């Protein structure tokens, strides 16, 4: 049986995770948040007091890590670090910068690559990240590059942090978004870029509901899938 794969790439705050998760539930696909996997490595480095940008030191840490994904009854992805469920811990704001830095290390990307590809070989998946269509799943059945203006993405991130009870200032969040874009787009290993055969979807002027229906329509048109994997 050949499973189908949808790759959704784009910059931080474009809505990839929120939309991919909802699309997977609608279509009966497995949702894979690759950013959560890198966040788990970033969290491990932070807990050990390791500079997440120190490539050799982070690489030396990898053999000591047991990183696993799991799915609850609701189908939502959980991340485990050495047996501990760190799903909530990896969403802390200061872990984001750590994730971006460790993701630029080639040894980290190689370490996590097979986990991602194996999941796609064994399930229908919607996988989101920054190099899914270009590196992880270059043969994906559909590739989408999801983006929005930096200000729009910063506003979404700012509201998300406040809703979680975390302190945040919009100007600081915007600076972090712009810096994250610079790092992701300029890194030597798997930089953020749109695959040549990816569909570009800009959600700057769209709310979440409008973005969802646009993507769902695109998927159904291109792959011919119906509800619940029909």
Describe this structure as you would to a colleague:
40% of the residues are buried. The protein has one domain: 3-Layer(aba) Sandwich (Rossmann fold). The mean pLDDT is 91. The strands form 2 sheets. A 5-stranded parallel β-sheet has the order 2-6-1-7-8, sandwiched between helices. Strands 3-4-5 form a 3-stranded antiparallel β-sheet, covered by helices on one side. The longest helix is centred in the middle third of the chain and has 17 residues, at 106-122. The protein is globular. The chain has helices at 16-27, 34-47, 55-61, 93-102, 106-122, 132-136, 150-163, 170-186, 208-223; strands spanning 5-9, 30-33, 67-71, 77-81, 84-85, 125-129, 142-147, 199-202. It has 230 residues and is an alpha/beta fold. Helix 2 (34-47) packs across helix 4 (93-102).
Number of separate helices: 9
CATH fold title: Rossmann fold
Spatial sequence of strands, sheet with the most strands: 2-6-1-7-8
| Main sheet: strands, sense, barrel | 5 strands, parallel
How many structural domains in the coordinates? 1
Q: List how many beta strands DSSP finds.
A: 8
Oligomeric state of this protein: single chain
Break the fold down into its secondary structure elements and pairings:
Elements: E1 5-9, H1 16-27, E2 30-33, H2 34-47, H3 55-61, E3 67-71, E4 77-81, E5 84-85, H4 93-102, H5 106-122, E6 125-129, H6 132-136, E7 142-147, H7 150-163, H8 170-186, E8 199-202, H9 208-223
Parallel strand pairs: 1-6, 1-7, 2-6, 7-8
Antiparallel strand pairs: 3-4, 4-5
Helix pairs in contact: 2-4, 7-8
